[in-house]
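Whiteboard transcription, Tuesday session. T.W. wrote the structure tokens on the left side:
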């Protein structure tokens, strides 16, 4: 049973690190992506997000 603990902890740690990376990446990416979409659409889509078209 104790042999599962390190791998489980490593997996959970990896998931947490990945989640933190994704959140940080989304925050940074959405900044420029939203600006690019706004300039491309002339800022006329009401800040609906870069996925909102």
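and on the right, the sequence the group agreed on:
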């Amino acid at each position: 049973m104790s042999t599962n603990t390190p791998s489980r902890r490593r997996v959970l740690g990896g998931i947490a690190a990945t989640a933190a990376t994704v959140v940080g990446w989304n925050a940074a990416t959405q900044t420029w992506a939203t600006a690019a979409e706004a300039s491309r659409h002339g800022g006329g889509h009401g800040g609906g997000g870069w996925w909102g078209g």
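Someone added at the bottom: The CA atoms of residues 36 and 52 lie 13 Å apart.
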